[in-house]
Write the structure tokens for this entry.
Amino acid sequence: MTSTLPAGADILGAMPQRVSATVMVGRDAPLDTLRGSVAALAATGGRVVVVGGEAGAGKTRLVTEFVDGLGEGTRVLLGGCLELGEALLPLAPLAGILRQLGQELGDEQAAAEVGPELAAFLPGRSGGNVESLWSGQASLFEAFSALLDRLSSQGPLVLVLEDLHWADRSTLDLLTWLSRTVVTSPVLLVATYRSDEMRRSHPLRAVLAEMSRLPQVERLELEPLGEADVVALLNDIQGDALPAELTRQVVERSEGNPFFAEELLAAVGSGSMPLTLRDILSARLDKLPEPAKEVLRIAAAAGRRVDHRLLEVVASLGPDELDAGLRSAVEEQALVAESDGFRFRHALLQEAVHEQLLPGERTRLARSFADALLADPSLAGGGAAAVDAELAHHAAASHDLDLAFTSLVRAGRRARSLFAFNEARRHYQGAIELAGKVSADAAASVPPTWELLRAAAFCCRQSGEPAIGVGHLRQAISLLDEETDRVAIGGLYAELSEGLWINGEGDEALVAAEEGVRLLTGYRTREAAEAFGFRARLLMLLGRFDEAVEPGRLGVEIAREVDAPLELSRAENALGTSLASLGEIDEGLPRLKEAIEIGRRNNIGADTVRGYINLVSSLKTPIDDVAQAEVWAREGMAFAKEHGITGSMCDWLRMEYGDVLIRLGRWAEAEDVLTEVRTGFSTGVSGLYFEVSHGLLAVTQGNLEEAEDHLRRSHELAPIIRDPQAIAPQVGVRMLIELGRGRHEVGDAIDLLAPHILDAQTYGPLALTARVCTVAALAGDPSGITGLRRIQELFEKRSDGANAVQAGNIAGWLSVVAAEIARAEGKDDPELWAAALAAMTERVQAEHALYAGVRLADALGSADRLDEATEQAGRTHQAALAIGAVPLAAEVEMLARKHRLKLPGIATTQGAAGLTGREREVLRLVGQGRTNREIGTELFISEKTASVHVSNILAKLGAANRGEAAAIGRDRGI
């Protein structure tokens, strides 16, 4: 559809020589935001600005204007996503950034600068051996973060990631990673995306939602230009004022989109006004000479950017015609010349040209691209090393299934070597889909289909898609014959067991592990060692330590016999942990140390660190040698640092060390260690452990809403995991939150913990559940006593047949439960609480010991042993304040007022308790049941400030929780 131009419009003559304005209009505010962000880097640390807007809104123009205005001391690295998305090079922005560094520094210096994990992205270099590395994609991302740290130490660094609506999954993972880790360096990350591409299922939507929660992330949305800005844009292009009617039509039909406005103006020379984008672009591009149109068709089939050499090979034009066509395309601002090629001025231009290609043209051009890449792989957009992914795309488009099949297999290997596991999985899956449609020669040139399925399953496990990987492994097993392929099937069942466990299907994982062991019983192979070792590890993780011993011993025996160091280290680790948990310390600990030594000797980084993790965990629980646990945790982290080990395994060791520090009551140090964890946002038990550790620190310091957020996220990250190391800490934090909120709902806590009573990790959370039961009983709820008796029975049953180490541990926790039962029955006994305090002190359980000290002071006061009560209260109060245990310190102050005890520096008189005016306002809102967030909104303060006020109020009033503080306030008329 067109409309006739008003009289006088012909003064414009032919299409304007310039299409784009020389100035940017209407974007001063977002430009100021970007400039302010880079200026504040030194003071605030890293920042992230995400720029969204519909196609043509001016995102690239804004970023270009910003970058062009930066001072000489600021380094800029740019990377963009490819418009064919996941069909091409994985981690395209990272590859582009590293290639830019290679051009700036030279290949050799760049390789030395980026390190071995990233060097594979440089020309002529390959990826690492995934099987020998310890941390997968996290290691790659950590290496990139370290590179940014080094570069930003030389001056401010701006990192630009463009066109995230085309991002592959690995790039989105990198974006998430950088958004969380960029705060440690003076780095500004600027990311752009097309908001009109954000359909409900688009994977970027979830990533942006998660990023928006981070304080260092700011989102900008480029709104349509106002009428005055569009007029200024048009006048700048034309060099003079336009006729009013023409201006009105452009303003109305562009709807504030600067690219549409520019193209509308460029198309009016025909004497009519196009109404659709296709008409707009067609009206302008149709005026180009035929060589220019041919160049644009080829470039559009290649993507938004095309190498000049590739155009020379594919174009059916002579050198002079090609040059003339390119010159016309550039002069008419359809293409923009770059150092070694050309790109479309805007992605919408490329899309419009590509849509006009006939099916036969697309097939012909795809065949030409495939032939060109086969002849010269360096023509690929990602360089020769990345040619297979691009080749597979063009081969499929040209219906060459054999070439597409073999290229997909090679592309899968390449992506896997770069730890781009999601993209590798897609390549393998594409090959598997073609496997039955290719020639016998093509099929024979790559591994059999069952091995491709196994490779795809491995990538699924690494990329957080274990359920898909389980399906691949089941399909692989179905392709093999048990009589002739027994060993291979047994190995696949071992991997299937691991995949099921990662997916939270513990029972099914055991069934698969048993099938692997059945098939491989009597075999002395690496697969047999793997199967027995993993069955031992699985039973250990599920807290079934006694059952884990036999397969663990057999796994060790076979691994030694066939000289399989990786399987040997893992089997020793599982066996040693199980024996230590059973109280067989004299054998268990040496085996754990041997697992570490095997990893060291054979350069198996992951399993060396895994050995340290389980040694620290065993020393901490159930052996209660927390001092030695700290020694080994420090040694393990020193080993990781010395050997450059990063990623999730190293982070798990940090979290174990953090738990050691929590046990020791060194909570500030624990917080510092946990802030160094880079993979805490990952799905599965690792992310759960991270969130629960933070939740424990938050709730013990009185930050209840923060603790609730951490607990909620722990469930989101691992919704179906049911092993003790996941369930127990979650229950513990939940019970402390109940107490902090003044509630006494036990719910399913005992039912969740009871099946895992053999695992000492459940003991502390059971004791916390007992506290809640006591509060329930004191409130008149009969279920409280019932729950306490059940917990006591669980411990007593566990002690039957226990060895000396186990029995001593259980006896300590039984003393806590006995004291709780007496209190719940109205017989608070100082001697029972003294025994509980001694037991918790001996086990280095700082929070439990402080709580027992509080209860002892209260029991002494109730028994009129006031001197002893005063001494105990003062000692406990000082200890609680020293480690930041605000709720327990407040409870001591409350019982001091109750029994008229004198605490150093704390008045025992009634009244306003020294509350400030602001604190009285906060207390009023607490009494109305408001959350910290709601208090902050009403009083125009931050949620964190509101939380601090609430903590101070609890301490001053001596209240144990918010409900008690509100009650005290009402009683005192505050």
Q: What stands out?
A: Residues 1-17, 127-135, 908-912 have pLDDT under 50 and may be disordered.
